[in-house]
Specification:
Blueprint: E1 2-8, H1 13-22, E2 29-35, E3 42-46, E4 49-53, E5 56-65, H2 67-81, E6 89-95
Antiparallel strand pairs: 1-5, 1-6, 2-5, 3-4
Length: 112
């Protein structure tokens, strides 16, 4: 099993959720996060004063999926979240050693 963490632009969340559901991935955790990479923030004008916004709003989607779905999931996330502009985000993939469903005690694939 793999854990996929995708950090994307907030307005792309519904589209990404829909395409993941279309390939059979229904469970996910979504968090509102802030950060910056190469974008390094941007400058905004507020009441005539210019100020720097260092941390930009993003959404982090976390999925734990079976290995067989990994490549398809990554492909649809990239295709759907891409705008072609700086700040589209990143995807991180890590191995999952063990999963336990608290309510039932089920483990690993049965718990996902």
């Amino acid at each position: 099993m793999k854990k996929v963490e995708a950090i994307i632009k907030p307005f792309k969340l519904d589209d990404v959720r829909e395409v993941l559901a279309d390939i059979g991935i229904t469970g996910m955790t979504v968090s509102e996060v802030k950060g910056f990479g190469r974008q390094k923030g941007h400058t905004e004008l507020y009441r005539g004063a210019e100020y720097m916004v260092d941390f930009l709003p993003k959404v982090k989607i976390e999925l734990v999926i079976q290995d067989e779905l990994l490549e398809q999931a990554l492909e649809v996330i990239v295709e759907t979240a891409r705008t072609g502009k700086i700040g589209d985000g990143k995807i991180f993939v890590t191995d999952i050693e063990r999963v336990i469903r608290i309510r039932t005690g089920e483990e690993n694939e049965d718990a996902v």
